[in-house]
Amino acid sequence: MALAGCGGSGDAAAELSVRSSYMPQPVSADMAAGFLTIVNKGGTKDELTSVTSDAAGDVTMHDTVGGAMEQVTSFPVPAHGQLVFKSGGNHLMFEKLKHRPAQGQTITLKLGFAKSRPLTVEMPVKSATYNPSTGH
């Protein structure tokens, strides 16, 4: 088992992992969306503070409430909980793409947190109409 942080009580530390990451194949040559779930099995909350990728000039985080999208600088990751980015909800925007990702390729991104070490994520590019199954 890998620990997400150093020092302190192991019981209280955030234990972060990522699942269900994907990018629908972008229809635009310069912008794409990304979705994933950050799971925290630890007893301490954390905060997602940055997302970077070599595939894009900029990656921004967006909160969607009542159909309105707003760029934010961080998202809480609750203790014993999860932070979900999904179509129609919170999401990542890959802006100034360096190349147009195609279905079957993988995009690498790095997630930065307030307390935990960064996580590197391999995000597969799916079809533009990909709709993941629910309940994950």
Strand content: over 45%
Q: Which regions are unreliable across 5 or more consecutive residues at pLDDT < 50?
A: 1-10
Radius of gyration: 15 Å
Please estimate the helix content. Answer: under 10%
Count of separate DSSP helical elements: 0
First-to-last CA distance? 22 Å
Q: Report the order of strands and helices.
A: EEEEEEEEEE
Return the average pLDDT rounded to an integer. 89
Main sheet record:
10 strands, mixed
E-strand count:
10
The backbone outline, from C-alpha atoms, is globular
Classification by helices and strands: mainly beta
Give the key terms:
globular, mainly beta, ten-stranded mixed β-sheet, 10 strands, 136 residues
Folded structure, characterized:
The chain is mostly beta strands and 136 residues long. 0% of the residues lie in helices and 54% in strands. The protein is built from no helices and 10 strands. It has strands at 16-24, 31-40, 46-53, 56-65, 68-72, 75-77, 81-85, 91-97, 106-113, 119-126. Strands 1, 2, 3, 4, 5, 6, 7, 8, 9 and 10 form a 10-stranded mixed sheet that branches. Strand 4 (56-65) and strand 5 (68-72) form a beta hairpin. The protein is globular and about 45 Å long. The chain starts with 15 loop residues before the first strand and ends in a 10-residue tail after the last strand. Mean pLDDT is 89; it is low at 1-10.
List the helices and strands and how they pair.
Blueprint: E1 16-24, E2 31-40, E3 46-53, E4 56-65, E5 68-72, E6 75-77, E7 81-85, E8 91-97, E9 106-113, E10 119-126
Parallel strand pairs: 1-10
Antiparallel strand pairs: 1-2, 2-7, 2-8, 3-6, 3-9, 4-5, 4-8, 9-10
